[in-house]
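User: Teach me something about this protein's shape.
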Amino acid sequence: MISTIFDGVSMSMIVPFSDKILSNGKIIVPGKLPAFAEQFIAKLNSMSQLSLLYYMAGFLVVMFLLKGLFTYLQGMLMSDVGQRVMRDMRIILYKKYQALDLEYFTRKRSGELISRITNDVGNVENAVSYGFTDLVYQTLQIVLFSAIVLLIYWRLAIVAILMVPFISIPIVLVGKKLRKISTSTQEKVADINSLLIETISGVRIVRAFGAENHEVDKYSRQNQDFYKLNMKSIRRTLALGPATEFIGVLGGVAILLYIGRQVIDGVLSFGVFGLFLGSVMMMIRPFKKLSAVNAIMQKAFAASTRIYDVLKIEPKIKSEPDAWEIKEIRDQVELRGVWFRYEEAEVLKDISVRCRKGEVVALVGASGAGKSTLVDLIPRFYDPQKGGVYIDGRDIRTLNVNSLRGLIGMVTQETILFNDSVKDNISYGKPGAGYDEIVDAAKKAFAHEFILNLPQGYDTYIGDRGVKLSGGERQRLAIARAILKNPPILILDEATSQLDSQAERLVQGALDTLMAGRTVFVIAHRLSTVKNATKIVVLQEGRIVEEGRHEELLERGGVYKRLYDLQFQA
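Assistant: First, the predicted structure itself:
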């Protein structure tokens, strides 16, 4: 606001400079002015040319110094606001991602999620830092110069103001189109990000199949589509400036013809004429700027819609306000009459399994039988559509989710490690664990020896998803992570699948020690690893078809016997 006032004052300096200092004439304004303005003009008219020149020179220096200061301050403050908005929106979105159900992530591409937290938030920040600043500043400029022309010649000012709707029409029409284009553009960014993530994370497969050219072609097509959308937006945005400017100039020329005659007739002075015409022209510039602001705002509106599409989602898996904080398991984990499906596909059908404290329940069956889905229900990654999961007779939906998962350790078939040090990956489930504890867990997982051979030992960074390690080494780190957490409930989903025979025997021994006294669910395709399980549950097409100990199931000669024979008599 202060910067705008200084703009008006600097423009008004035309009047005394041209009318009084250069021509030693009088400042003449048609019509009635407010008393303070008339007194000020009378004072200027009474001053000598030289005195007024000195006053103006000093005033200009001070004014532009202050104007520069306030322009700098508003730029800094609004940039700070924009950066804070971007910072806060990113952390809000990231927190939301952490709270959303796993089901959401199975339906969305990684690139789309990344695009919302980077590109979309960036568009909103641009609107706040620059778009909103210009929106306020340029609007104030229009108000200020409208006030000036109203004071000088209100009849002509009304004519100038009536031009506003004609200037606004192309801005509104193009703005609607820009919003649609911006939505498509941001979706295309998500497509490009997804493709990048897929090809970078799957670079070995791309190389192995010689598919580099195929992937380049795919990326080129996506990139070309993105280019076309951007050019659509750019063409419309660039056309707005000349269009609004031309409409404004038409009005300005009409005013120039009329008011020029008023100067010739001596109704107003040349300086006042210059101020009036300059103010009219200064009103055109903000409209031109506002057309660019509109383009920025439309992108931000499209981006904010995509952001709020995420923020308004309510996770299904969450702790109720009165949720029970569970500290330990005393008796058993039980699945009672569980039915579960992903969208339309029924995966589990009437599953009932009981695992008492200290027991080891092994889940076996062909791929797609529902084993992994079953164990995913225990830490409440999903809720069943029918039936429920109970710990010590209490439905886990009544438990605090964090306290429930604090009781559970998992080692999965897909080993997930982070681009961090070895020790930080091992201590992931127990932040703040001491160095000795980490080393002890690594020794039990038979990982200590290979860790010492790494360049910085336990401080070695292992790359994205542990890419610098072999499959077996990654698996042993994951096992060490579960050992360190020391949970009462263990879920082992093909925990030894990436190990060679020697390492498997060593780690299996460590797991046997770890499993003692704990409630354990084991998924294994290698049936040799589940011989000693307390109970073996055989799944087929989402149903339990057999249940018992290893020897009992072999004697029955059913599904388990056939699976066993396929592995050991092939």
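Now, about its shape. The mean pLDDT is 82. DSSP finds 20 helices and ten strands in the chain. If you'd like, I can walk through any region in more detail.
User: That's plenty for now, thanks!
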